[in-house]
Ferredoxin (Glaciimonas immobilis), 93 residues
Amino acid sequence: MAFIVGKECNGCKYTVCVDVCPVDAFHEAEKFLVINPDTCISCSVCAPECPVDAIYDEFDLPIKQISYLEINRNFSSLYPVISASKATMVFRK
């Protein structure tokens, strides 16, 4: 079991969630974050930190966002770990 970053993070990359992750499971893509499901220990401390409610327990992921299971898995192998928050990058208009 792992936590997953859903579509709400696309274009609205807040990074406050990474400060509380005890295992550095977050990876930073250009316009969103993902969680490495192999690193995540399902502690759930990141979810309440997300100001746009983009972090889900994989079993609570909305059915329309099921593709984010693979997006998180695949992108976490392509992008670097982020372990400290940065200035918020908002790409939405």
